[in-house]
Every structure is written in C-alpha cells, then in structure tokens.
User: Fold these one by one.
Assistant:
Number 1:
Amino acid sequence: MLPRPEVRWRRGAVSPTAAVGMLSVMSLVLAACGSGLATGDTATDAATSTTGTTTTTGATPGSSTTTSTSAPEGSSTSGQSQNDEALGIGDDYFPDTGNPGYDVISYDLTLDVDDDLVSFEAVAKIALTTTESLDELRLDLDGHEVAKTTIDGTEVPNHRAGLDLVLTPKQPLPAKASVAVTVDYGGTPEPRGSEVLGGLGWLGTPGEGSYVVSEPDGASNWFPANDHPSDKATFGFEITVPEGVEAVANGTRTGETTKSGRTTWSWSVRDPMATYLATVAIGQYTFFEGTAPDGLPLLSAVADEVVKQEGKPAIDAVLGQLPQMLTVLSQRFGPYPFETYGIIVVGKPLGFALETQTRSIFGSDMWAEPIYQAHELAHQWYGDSVSLELWEDIWLNEGFATMGEWLWAEATGGSGGPPLSAGSSLAPPLDPGPDAMFDTSVYVRGGLTLKALRQEVGDTKFFTIMSTWAADHRLANANTDDFLQLVDEVGGSDAESLVSAWLSEPEPP
Ligand code: ARG
Ligand code: ZN
C-alpha cells in the first residue's frame, strides 16, 4: 500500500489512543492484503559489493571462468549470457535491478534540460571497479535513446535487454579493474513504479518543472545506474536549464554559471549515496541558507508557489527547527553523517516524503509537519548513511526513522509514540514483501520493536546501541543479523530474542 497522506498522518501525529484504534483498522487492511509472515531468515546472503574475494581461473580472454564468493544468492554469473532479459544483483524484491560483477565509485551526471523543463540530453560518466571478469557490462536504464557508449575512452556497442543497457567491451574486462564508462543518452523520462508505489523517478510537468523521487527502484528512469542500495557511490551533477530557472540536487552547490541564456547548476555529493536517494528538482525555487550550531551548512529550496502561498515567516518557522532537530537527534544517534543538510519542497502534494541524502524532499502536503521533518532527518543516519543490503530489511530504515519521530516528540514535550500494545494489531515488520514495504506495520511495529528494546535494556544501553549502529556502519551497508548481533553484545541474549520476536513473530511478546 502506498503511504497515502492520511496513513502517514496517523503515524505519531495523533494521540496514542486514537492511533491504536486506527492501527487496528490498519491491521485488518494489512491482513486482507496478505502481509506475509516473516520467516526470521534474515539477510545473511546479502549483496555487498565491496566485500568478498574473487577467484579468476583461466587467463585467456574469452575462456575465463569466475567464481565470486561475494555473489549474492540468486544472482546470475556475470557477463557470459547473451540474455535478452535483465539480470539483477540478487534481491528477490526487485529481480531486475542492480547488476552483478562491479562496484560503482562515482556517477557524474551532466543534464542539458529542454525548455519544457522535463526532457533532457545527458552524459553519464561512471567510474567503477570490476569485482570479477566481465565480458559485458550492464547498467539499469529505463527508456531513453542511447546515442553512444564508451569504455575507457573507446566507443563500444550496446544493446538493451529488458531494463539493462548492455555494453560489450572489445576485450573482457579483468577482475579488480578500474573502468571508466560513459553513456550519452536522453529523452523524456517515463515514470516507473506501480499501483502500489505510485510513479517513481524523474517526474515532470511540461512548462512547470521536474523533481525526482525514486525509492525503491526508480533511479533508472533518469540515469544509467547500478540501481540497488548495496552499491553506493559519490555523485556530481551539472544541470543546465533556461536562465531564471533553479536546479537543486543533493550535496553542496559548487557552481552557478550563466552563458547565452542558459544556467548551469553544479552540485556535488561527498559521501557515498544509494541511487534511490539521488534527487534533482528543477523549476522556480527560493533558496534558504543557514548554519547549524556545530557549523554544518544548511541549504533548503522551496518552490516559489509554496513560498507565495505560505509566506516567508511560515517557512522560516519550519526551517528554523532544523538546527534544534539536528542537535537533538545527534545527541541520541551520534554525529550527523554528512557534509550538509536541508530540504526541498516541491509545489505539488507527493503523498509521502523521501529522505534524499543531505536534502530530504517533501511535497506541498507534508513539509510543515515537524514529525515528518524529524522522520526524514532521522533517515540520514538510518537508511542513508547506514544503508540496506537487501530491501527485505526495510524496517531498518522505516522503524528507525519512526523512532526518530518519537524521540523528537519526546524532546519537545510530546509522547514517545504509541504504547507497545499497539504492536499486536500489526504484521511483523521483517521481510514484508515488495508490495508491503511501506506499510504502517513496517513503520510502526518497526519503531515499536526499538521501543520494546529500550524498555528492556534501559536508556543508556539503548542509545549505545543506536549510536554504535550508526557509527559501525557509517557510509556503508548492514543487515538485520548485524543488528541482532549488536543487540546481543550490548543488551544480552534476552534483548536479542525480544527484538527477534518483535520482528518476526505473528504476535509481538
Ligand atoms: N522512505 C519514505 C519515507 O518513509 C517513503 C517512501 C515511499 N515510497 C514510495 N514510492 N511511495 O519517508
Ligand atoms: Zn521513512
């Protein structure tokens, strides 16, 4: 189910008693949706693109066979197939997304946006390291005309295989090689997604502007990507738009130059970022800049429409809370992980918000609600800095961000979320299935799992667990088993069993 505004509104924004009543209704809906029972079999075979060793046998190009101990379960061996179907990275929730055999280091995206503010011509420069020998290199790319592809400066042929853009190098790429890829492409992005998730990726309205929200698998509609959170990379953006139009993205603004009626906006992202967290918003925006008490640069961009409608004081009031939120959450989670923070507010209702790294994106519907601000800010630690290995662990994002809402509420005199008894009407949050990833059960029972842990071990140990989790996996990937191990180490085996039961048993303890 799509987290519709009314569903999101219920989370934490109402009194605990009212919430319990509504959550019971939700659980009936969830039961009717057949939210599967989690098996408790967690992400032990998770895809990590940076670990594992590769053994290559056979030195002759074309005759080599490779085995990679890091290959996730279910992933096909790379390269060898002349498959006309997409390959994936081995995540059952999205079998076509991501690709085997390499690790992206950086994406540099140069977008030349048309006057309609929706279509564009682009060059993607991708630096990657192979993890095994590859006789073809696959990227996810949905739609677009591809004009040219190169590998290490040499033009190479390409073809499509489902969601994959397949590049064929002259010679197989050896394992552990640094490879530079370029893709010249362009067109009008077609939104990805489903009835469940809504339109994802680059979403444009001709003449008005465009914005990007991609979670979970929408990034490939606007750039060629290894579209899976297990392969994080740094990003640079150069976005050229008609003069007088703003283009905002993640990270730090590094330039704004105008030539012959066209303005190029440059943005760079210092720390590795999952593809679904990359965002761009183009249109009429006003920038709001500031500094948090610890010196962290703050930069937000609000659609002029929203500025006009709400007035600057209302916007200042919302943005003015961010420094205190950063302080409160840093006290509990440890240092804020990134180089900057801020929000983007687009001029349309989105029905949800997204924790786009360093610059969370909101619609005109939800941006003013502090609880949602706290939620997306908490995701910067949990989801963005500590990323998933597999989507079945989505509770590690949403349960933790929901706990972030409750901690903010608590710090400002409100209640710290619904009582634990609210959990009994909700399905287990671990491995909810791809259609239920953003269900209330993942958010609220995920959050209640942490609340139950807090009650069990007390504040000191609980916040040690929260901050150690953020520190140990900062800018990296982790899974539920890693978390259970940490809970066991800090809180003991009873705490570990309690968390397991909250995550997987039909009825929480
Ligand atoms: N991660 C987002 C949040 O909880 C929700 C994104 C939902 N995705 C979607 N396609 N509707 O803040
Ligand atoms: Zn969330």
Number 2:
Amino acid sequence: MAQEKLWGGRFSQPTDKFVEEFTASIQFDKRLYSQDIRGSIAHAEMLGRQGIISAADVEAIVGGLREILDQIEQGTFDFSVSLEDIHMNIEARLSEKIGEAGKRLHTGRSRNDQVALDIRLYLRDEIAEITSYLDLLVDSLLFQAEKNINVMMPGFTHLQTAQPILFAHHMLAYVEMFKRDKGRMEDCLKRVNVLPLGAGALAGTTFPIDREFVADRLGFPEVTRNSLDSVSDRDFALEFISAASILMMHLSRFSEELILWSTSEFRFVELSDSFCTGSSIMPQKKNPDVPELVRGKTGRVYGNLMALLTVMKSLPLAYNKDMQEDKEPLFDTIDTVKGSLKIFADMIREMRVNADRMLQAAGGGFSTATDVADYLVRKGVPFRDAHEVVGKVVRYCIDEDMTLEELSLAEWQLFSMQIQEDIFAAITLEASVNARSATGGTALERVRQEIERARSGK
Ligand code: ARG
C-alpha cells in the first residue's frame, strides 16, 4: 500500500514505483531499528528538557517508540518500501500511533545526522562483539598451544623447511596478529564513538539543543565539532572495514596453512568432521570447507573496502544520496567477520594435532643446518666460513642419502677439524629449539612465558 510521503509537501506527482524501490534502503537498513529508536528517545528527551517540545509530547513519543520497538522485535511491524528507509518507517508509524506529538520528533534534526548517528551506534555495538570473538579465537589458540606445548614442527620460509620450531610458537604467531586486530578495532572505536546528532541537514539547527546531553544519554564521550563533517564523514566506517580486511587477511593465511596441513601429504592436523564435508564422487575425501570458505570470504571484505572507498571518492560536502550505499558493504563486512571468527574459534579448539607427523617433518630437510653453522661460530669460525662448510656437509648428505644426525664424527671432521664429539648434542631438535631463547624466540621456556603473558591479557 502506498504511503503518504513525509517530504511530500513540494511534490505534485507521486514517485514512480520503480524509482521508489530503487532509491529505498529499508530492505537493508531495517537492521538499524533499535539504534534508530534509541537515538530518537534521547533526542526527544533532550527536546523536552530544553523546552522545545512539551513533557507530554516526550512521554507520548517515548511510549510510542517503545511499542514500535516491541512490534519490530516480534515481527509484527509492517515495513513499507514507499517510506524509503528505517528512519521514516518508524517516524511515520509513530505519528500514526500518537498523532501530533509524533510529528514533533524530527524538530532540530535531519535524516542526515540521524543516519550518521544510527550507523555509529550500530557499529559501536558490533565492534564490541567482534573484539569478544577475537578474544575467543585467541583463547582457542592458547588452548592448543598449551595442550601441545612440547610438539615440534618444521618452521618454513618460502614454504621450504627452514628450522625446527614449537607448534605452540606457530600458534602464538597468530595470537600476536589477532591481538593487533583487536587493537585496530579498539582504536577505530575511538573515532566511531563520537555523537554527530545536532548537525541537522548540514549547517546545524536554529533550536537551542543540548548535544552534550544527548551524547551523555547515548554514552558518547565526545560530540563532533563541525556540522558539515558530521553528516558527510564515513571515515569511521572505512577504518572499520580496513581493520576488518587486515583481520580477514590474517584468517586467510591461517586458512591456507590449515588446508595445507590437512592434506594427506602433510597430515600435521586433523580438523573435526563437523567442519569438513565429503565429496559426492570420491568416497575417501574430507574437504576443509570452513578454512576454504573463510579464505574465499576474505575477497568480499576487500571488495567492500573498495566499494565504500569508491562511493566516498570525490563526494562534495555535505550529505549526498550516494552515501546510502555505505550500509550494505558495512553490514556484509560485519556479518562476514563475525561468522569467520566464531567458526574459527570453535574449529581451532577442536583441531587434532598429529605430533608424530610434525616431529618427523621437523627433522627432515636438514632443518638443523643453521645450528651446525652456529656451533662452528662458537668454536671461533667466522659465520660466512661456517655457512660454506655446512653447505658442503649438506651436499655430502644428499649424495650419500643421509641425515645430519647420521654422520659419524670422522665424517664431520672431513669438513672441519673444529667439530668435536659435542656436535651430536648441539644438533638435536630440542637443542635447536631451546637455543633460541631470546625474547620472541621458539625456546620452550620463552614460549611458556609468552603463553602466560597472552593469558594475562598483556
Ligand atoms: N536512507 C538514507 C541513507 O541511508 C538516510 C539519509 C537520507 N537523507 C536524505 N536527505 N535523503 O543515507
């Protein structure tokens, strides 16, 4: 049913049906309903307090808005496309319900500052949820790190075996990334958490409003300082999607490793059946769908960032309708990040670690070659010469099809007379790992300390 337009006064022809649908945002901005109502209640209370509307009007408005909130939550509210967006759907319903008083709600306010307020309120709530999901994921990583504290694996560079490390050390690398992601979210929140209401359409309002009161009611520590900027700024949303893109990039790297580690060639980990699917033709298959999908979804979040940057590019001040296009990329980013984090937190907690397989791989690929070079340096050989010597030893082992551990002292001494009986103890996997004991290294004691540190929230 076509509704009377709230801005219909200057128009003589009705809006074309298709144009109406094309320009409406109610299909997606209805999810701002509770923020819109919260904002309107604070605004009405301020109008009453300032004597701009009567106390009776405030009471009617607040009561009416609460009823609307209930209706929306119970699914009995009828959203109308001809009322364009969530702001006008709620306001029109309010006026239907309570008459005159409802029509006074929009005094000293515009949809331009109203929508800016709603998005900020919404994003503020969602950032809090996202940081709590990040905490859950970090918790799962620490759980695996602790549970497998003695498990060794090969560390890679260029995806070639490089040096042995603790599996826990590898998990803690992701802890660092997700802690930085949390920091970026918290930093972005500072700029989200500023009240734009009071900017009016663009220049402020002629009514004696009290923006600080509204800020206080809604829990904003600050108010914006320029009305033009207040209604045309979406930096906070861009910052959020940028931080989300970096977060997804981290998840995609982790996904890639889990996919690789789950192959029959690696077999480092096994993902729980509930996070995988089978193949309709190949009976042996168990596919790592969840990490694959998260890796894929990274693309849509980057796409959302590009979309909003492009929407904002070259926009003249102040509000432009283009900015209605901010919502879908923003909402999609929030949904994608929350879903990915939640599923990862659960999947990592349930992941099974194949310690034997990792240990076996850790000893392959001459992973302790650097330790031999370091050993020679401790015996007084300059590092470059030591590197050359060990290169020759590795060549010898490849030709003889041997590992470094299998060489006899006599064989070692073919390459350097500095090598003594103590070489054998110096090149075990444990010795290699535990020798790297400076801050940030993979030594067992270091890793234990870092787990403690991360647990204590530092
Ligand atoms: N639905 C609009 C948006 O999302 C609300 C603001 C509209 N303002 C206007 N002057 N048309 O941006």
